[in-house]
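Task card 7
Instruction: Convert sequence to structure tokens.
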Amino acid sequence: MSCHMLRCGEILALACIGLRMCSAQTPSGALAGIVFDPSGARIPNVTLKLTHRELAVERRTITTAEGLYSSPALPPGAYDLQAEAPGFQPVSRSAVVTAGATTTVDLTLPIAPKTDSVDVYGAAPGLQRLRLADGNRGVELQAERDRQRDDRAAVEVEAA
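Output:
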């Protein structure tokens, strides 16, 4: 009977070792690449978001000073990559990560269009607001100043 118990103990120990080895060897892959601008120069500090489509696992990474990125130990499957950096338009790509392999995805970010904006505050010149009382109700009028009339008169005088 002691031999039987010893054998059961050995089998249980081997099973535990086997389970530990299987969990330590979970299959994974990696994504890596280089991010370029339209001229072919590498872009540092690009933020990349990698999202596993089925598992909804998200990982973020940033490119190095040489424009390189790498994201190891990813679960295998289809991924959506999104890359963005100030001064560039964001770019999205798809990639498939295979267990035991590194999938290379190089990206080129287009330069963002230049946009200028001007904020103007205050009333338009040449307008004034008048509030006139008409009995018990107020009448609000907006009238243009006489400046335009004066400008037309000055042109007529110069022409004469």
